[in-house]
């Protein structure tokens, strides 16, 4: 899989995790179906993976990777993105995993994969799900969190709602919510992505049935057209897309399933409608700088513009900002990037190639 075949993977097979968010521009916003329909459909899928039972009775499916938990020096929870699952891809060298003693816990967020939907899902509930998962699997008082693409809103929520449980955080190509109050209008007013999200939310809210009908028509191009669209991906991303699976959850067959539509719809809305907090009002979860928070961004990312990430990082000086000069949105598929992410997060090692020279941003 990908040009890191020479490395053994932290078997996270889901290339869609990070790119999945791009699907906001197509079939991302699904129709809302009746709860009974969702329950019936969910019950038809027998869970093959281990699951925990949450306090509200829901189940979360998970997968473990890396060194055995009992021998781990570092325990990391991976948070997948839009249209993804616990099978996401994170290409880390096995040598590094063994050397540092890294244990990975990957899980299906609410409604994804083999996890139950959460009818009361919120930005805060995403963090509380992670906390319960960590407690039931006995990860200890503190753990690391890596959120990829749209999985970043769950990760921001951890910084807000469970900062005392965090050992360190990395947000990889995190989505930016244009509804954050602190984002200056002059920075986002001409951003075409903002307009696309706006229209997507309108359709999802007021015409979900029409949207659902549209994206499941056989005469429409398949999602493979979008996956190879240079509007969303730079040349390096396009090379990656030639050798990885695309967006299996976004096929027309999958999109016809009510439970899939509901999950995508709710996930999209939570990411891009107002939250219960503004990330730029957050305090440093590690005031003594004993640990760190990182943002990893591609300079050529066409899904999330680097200008927004630079602004967010400038407002939160306790965040360590890393920028890949020729990087797009599929950073976790690039040769050596996952190793760089882990070394920065766990060991505090900064790769000079990813340290941009950014002029001071005036609000």
Describe this structure in words.
This protein has 363 residues and is α/β, with parallel strands linked by helices. It has one domain: Rossmann fold (3-Layer(aba) Sandwich), CATH 3.40.50. The chain is built from 14 helices and 8 strands. An 8-stranded mixed beta sheet has the order 1-2-4-3-5-6-7-8, sandwiched between helices. Helix 3 links the parallel strand 3 and strand 4. The chain is globular.
Q: How does the SSE layout of this entry go?
A:
Elements: H1 16-19, H2 35-44, E1 51-53, E2 59-66, E3 74-79, H3 94-100, E4 102-107, H4 123-136, E5 143-148, H5 152-161, E6 166-172, H6 185-188, H7 192-206, H8 208-215, H9 223-227, H10 235-241, H11 252-255, H12 258-272, E7 293-298, H13 306-315, E8 319-324, H14 337-347
Parallel strand pairs: 3-4, 3-5, 5-6, 6-7, 7-8
Antiparallel strand pairs: 1-2, 2-4
Helix pairs in contact: 4-5, 7-8
Keywords:
363 residues, alpha/beta, Rossmann fold, 8-stranded mixed sheet, 14 helices, 34% helix, AB_hydrolase_fold, AB_hydrolase_1, AB hydrolase-1 domain-containing protein
Q: What is the gyration radius calculated from CA atoms?
A: 19 Å
Query: Counting H and I runs of at least 4 residues, what is the number of helices?
Result: 14
Which CATH architecture would you pick? 3-Layer(aba) Sandwich
**CATH topology label:** Rossmann fold
For the terminal residues, how far apart are their CA atoms?
A: 42 Å
Structural class: alpha/beta
- Rounded average pLDDT: 81
